[in-house]
Each structure stands twice: as structure tokens, then as C-alpha cells.
Amino acid sequence: AGGGPVTLVAAAQSAYLAAAGVLLVLGRERLLLAALSPLLAGAAVLPWWEPGPALRAGLPLLALLATLTVTGWVLRGALAVPAVTDATRPRLLWSLPYGLFGLAAGVLVLLEGREEPYAVIVLTLSMGPAEWLLYRYRGLSVAALRATATPAGFLLRSAGVLGLCLLAYLAPLLPAALLTGSDPAALLLLAAVLWTALLLQAFGAAWSSAGICLAAAGGAGAVVLFRLPPGAALALPVACGAAALCLVACALWLLGRPAPHA
């Protein structure tokens, strides 16, 4: 019975993420922003006014209903458009690594939430800047490609761009972790894993990122489930640290060449 409210919140968040994902894929970011306007307005006045429990629960619910309504309207219009006659349906196998990565990411975040619940909130809020930095990485990489004349020079510049974007993403998470009383090491390593894996997926390296994240999730999960050494407290930082190193190496190997950015 105690898990009822938590289950409802998780279901609502899952519904929102599914609907928001549809809107983002279909290029309807402005509609998503409009649907979230009640929640944004409520958050803006929090420093000066206490809305009370009714509005605290009502505004997120209103934003969720607006997002679901807008998504239904957009999907209705998209499905009404005649299908392209010569288009080929993507193979199911092509989508498999993305689903496996989602499963691995969910397990890693779940393990973090067991130890540090507030860290999950910080991680969720950081997804917006993470997406923006993925976009900026592309622009900075193209600029680096234009500014270099040799493969070795581009590799060095590409490593600098990767380090800069990763640092820009992780730096604000450190004070956020300290503010919420979370373990900074676990949060930053998990965030590094998720961001670098998303970067690789954005450039088509879905299987490598999924495999590394699955190995990290499986290893950390096994340690927690079977109470193996080094223990639950260290399982996630160790697994994410190893995964982050592997993902960064893959990113440098793949994205340190001019071809993916041409």
C-alpha cells in the first residue's frame, strides 16, 4: 500500500517521457514547451510564494494531461498523412541496441536511486543541458574539422572538444550533488556514462554504447543483488568508472576521425 503513490508518480513520469519523446522526434518542441507552461509558471513563483499541496500536485498533472493531449493531436495528424509508397520499414534488429541501452540506463539509475534518491532528480534535471551539449558538440567538431589540416591535429582538437563538453555537463552536477547530500563520485560517473553513450548513439555507434552500458549495469546489479564485494556502495561508482573510460575511448576512436563529421 505504501508503494501506491510512488507507483503512480513513476507511471506518470513514464507517460510523460513517452509523449515528450514522440513530440521531440516529430520536431514539435514548441508544442511540448507550451504543454509544460503550467509547470514552468508554478516553478517560477516558488521562491516567493508557497502554492500549497493542491497546486503542487495539480500543476504537474495539468502539464502531463496537456502533453498527452498535444501528443495525441500530433499523432493523429501524422497518421493521416499517406505513407510513402517506396519506403522500407526499418528492421527490428536496428532498434534493438537502443532498447538495450535504455534498459541498461534504467538499471544504472535505479541502482543510484537506491542509495541516493535526490541524485536521480539532479540527473533528470540535467538531461536538458545534456541534449544541448550534444548539439553543441556537433558544431564544435565541425569547426575543429575546418581548422585542422591533418588527422592527428583533428584528433587532438576532437579530444579537446569532447573534454570541454563533458566538463561543461559534469561541472554543475558537483555543487548540485553536494547541495542534495548525494555522493558526487557516483553521480558524476553515472552522468558521464549516460552522456557519452548518448553521444555515441547520436553518431550511429549504438551497439558499442549499449554493450558497455549493459556490462556496467549487469556487473553493478549482480554485486547489489548477490551482495558481492566490493559492496553496494561501491558497485555503481566502480562499474560506471570503468564504463566511462571505455565509452570515452570509443568516442575518441570513432569521433576522432574526420569522416563522421564530414
TrEMBL record:
Superkingdom classification of source: Bacteria
Record key words, sorted: Membrane, Transmembrane, Transmembrane helix
Listed transmembrane segments: 6-26, 31-49, 61-85, 92-111, 117-134, 154-179, 185-203, 210-228, 234-255
Keyword Transmembrane in annotation: yes
Name of this chain's protein: Uncharacterized protein
Species, as recorded: Streptomyces sp. SID7499
Record lineage: Bacteria, Bacillati, Actinomycetota, Actinomycetes, Kitasatosporales
